[in-house]
């Protein structure tokens, strides 16, 4: 099974880090830079998991996550909210967004892989 990851982040570097860290899972990482694009891309791409930065253009990650969780076809897709260590994650917004988990940047590749295994069990059983 190939892992499908939707990454909503403005950084091309973060996309590269995701691709390298998840290459053992034969991951296809689809990146979007704007929160406005996430739903349409998710519906077409059908990701196994979504990672979204809380600081996105036009629609922040909290609102993007909540929209995913309220969408009939996407609500069961795990969503991990990411934020940079120079700021604090807003815990009230995190709860409101109904995110499955959180990931502080910069992050350890093993921690990222652990999150994927936790929320995409088929990957944990059959790593490439």
Key phrases:
single chain, 128 residues, alpha/beta, 5-stranded parallel sheet, 20% strand, globular
How does the SSE layout of this entry go?
Layout: E1 4-8, H1 12-21, E2 28-32, H2 38-45, E3 49-53, H3 61-70, E4 79-84, H4 91-97, E5 101-105, H5 109-119, H6 121-125
Parallel strand pairs: 1-2, 1-3, 3-4, 4-5
Helix pairs in contact: 3-4
Short account of what is shown:
With 128 residues, the chain is α/β, with parallel strands linked by helices. It is built from six helices and five strands, in the order βαβαβαβαβαα. The mean pLDDT is 92.
Describe the structure.
Helix 3 packs parallel to helix 4 (91-97). The protein has a five-stranded parallel beta sheet, sandwiched between helices. The chain has 128 residues and is an alpha/beta fold. The mean pLDDT is 92. The protein is built from six helices and five strands. The longest helix has 11 residues, at 109-119. The radius of gyration is 13 Å and the shape is globular.
**Helix-strand category:** alpha/beta
Question: What level of helicity do the residues show?
Answer: 25-40%
Number of helices: 6
Give the low-pLDDT segments.
none
Strand order of the largest sheet: 2-1-3-4-5
So what's the overall shape? globular
Number of strands: 5
Q: Distance N terminus to C terminus?
A: 8 Å
User: Could you state the order of secondary-structure elements as H and E?
Assistant: EHEHEHEHEHH
User: What amount of the residues lies in strands?
Assistant: 15-25%
């Amino acid at each position: 099974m190939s892992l499908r990851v939707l990454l909503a982040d403005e950084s091309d570097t973060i996309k590269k880090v995701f691709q390298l860290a998840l290459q053992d899972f034969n991951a296809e990482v689809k990146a979007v830079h704007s929160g406005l694009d996430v739903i349409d891309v998710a519906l077409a791409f059908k990701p196994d998991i979504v990672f979204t930065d809380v600081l996105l253009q036009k629609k922040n990650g909290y609102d993007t996550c909540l929209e995913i969780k309220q969408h009939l076809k996407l609500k069961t897709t795990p969503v991990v909210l990411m934020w940079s260590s120079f700021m604090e994650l807003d815990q009230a917004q995190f709860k409101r967004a109904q995110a499955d988990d959180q990931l502080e940047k910069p992050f350890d590749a093993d921690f990222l892989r652990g999150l994927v295994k936790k929320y995409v069990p088929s990957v944990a059983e059959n790593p490439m």
